[in-house]
Amino acid sequence: MQELNDKKTIELLNSIMEFELAGVVRYTHYSLMVTGPNRIPIVDFFKAQASESLLHAQQVGEILTGLDGHPTLKIASMEETYKHSVKDILSESLVHEKKALDLYKALLDTVTNASVYLEEFARTMIGQEEMHNLELKKMLRDFS
After folding, report:
1. How far is CA 53 from CA 2, 36, 82, 114, 137, in A?
2. CATH, residue 67
3. Helix (H) or strand (E) holding 5
4. Would 96 be classed as within a structural domain?
5. Is residue 1 part of a domain?
């Protein structure tokens, strides 16, 4: 096993935490903006995504403090597109989830062969983000 690069790991975990917290805001906003005949299940979907983003941020924060890191009070920057059709918000969600996937893959690259726990955490999160990507692609399929 190699030595864990604490500084790089903490920086990456803080980036992930900022991104997950931005997801809470993003998905809450989307849940409020959905209109149309399919509103109820889509609102429920986005509320669940917001809750999951909060849970992920909390999990990452626990790991951060375990590594003697200081969890950020920031959230990742977000752009308001003012496009709120279901297709637009699902497309924006897919972009967000792809970025989350990239962040967790970067975490895996950073902790591989240095921490079994962090490797397993990163792999679990990558699996969840891949599932979100697949789900969003399926939800977008009828719009193409």
Report:
1. 31, 25, 22, 26, 19
2. 1.20.1260.10
3. none
4. yes
5. no
Q: What sign does the CA torsion over 32, 97, 127, 13 have?
A: negative
Which domain does 74 fall in, by range? 6-143
pTM value surpassing 0.70: yes
Residue 66 lies in a domain: yes
Give the pair of three-digit tokens for residue 73: 């009070």
Q: pLDDT 10s per residue in the chain (144 long)?
A: 899 999 999 999 999 999 999 999 999 999 999 999 999 999 999 999 999 999 999 999 999 999 999 999 999 999 999 999 999 999 999 999 999 999 999 999 999 999 999 999 999 999 999 999 999 999 999 886
Q: Is 15 within a domain?
A: yes
Burial, 25: exposed, middle or buried (Cβ in 10 Å; 0-12, 13-18, 19+)?
Answer: middle
Contact 86, 38 (CB under 8 A): yes
> Which helix (H) or strand (E) covers residue 50, if one does?
helix 39-66
What is the rounded distance in angstroms from the CA atom of residue 80 to the CA atom of residue 26? 9
**Cα(50)–Cα(105) distance, rounded to whole angstroms?**
21
What the block records as the tokens of 43 is 């609102």
